[in-house]
Amino acid sequence: MEYNAQMRNRMKRIEGQVRGLLRMMEEQKDCRDVVTQMSAVRSALDRTAALIVSTNLEECIRNEKQTSENSEDLIKEAVKLLVKSR
User: Fold this and answer.
1) Half-sphere exposure (CA, 13 Å, Cβ side) for 23?
2) Is the dihedral of CA 3, 4, 7, 13 positive or negative?
3) Which of 7-16, 47-56, 59-68 tops mean pLDDT?
4) What is the 3-state secondary structure (H, E, C) of 17-78?
5) pTM score, whole prediction
6) How far apart are CA 86 and CA 84, in angstroms?
7) How many CA atoms lie within 13 A of 21 on its CB side?
């Protein structure tokens, strides 16, 4: 699978959020603010994982005719990946 620019940009944004979190901790910011930011990072990771899985699933279904896999198996695998990512 090719990870496109949108996926890489999302990860770079998440990386920046994590750096901001570390800075907040170093500056002894209020724990509510830190936990709120942690929640935002986790949500961003979840959305990025879903994007990657859905893009991969779409690509696999398009290529299905060339392989012996069927759509149902591909969808089950994608769901397992999404559940695992949580």
Assistant:
1) 6
2) positive
3) 7-16
4) HHHHHHHHHHCCCCHHHHHHHHHHHHHHHHHHHHHHHHHHHHHHHHHHHHCCCCHHHHHHHH
5) 0.78
6) 5
7) 17
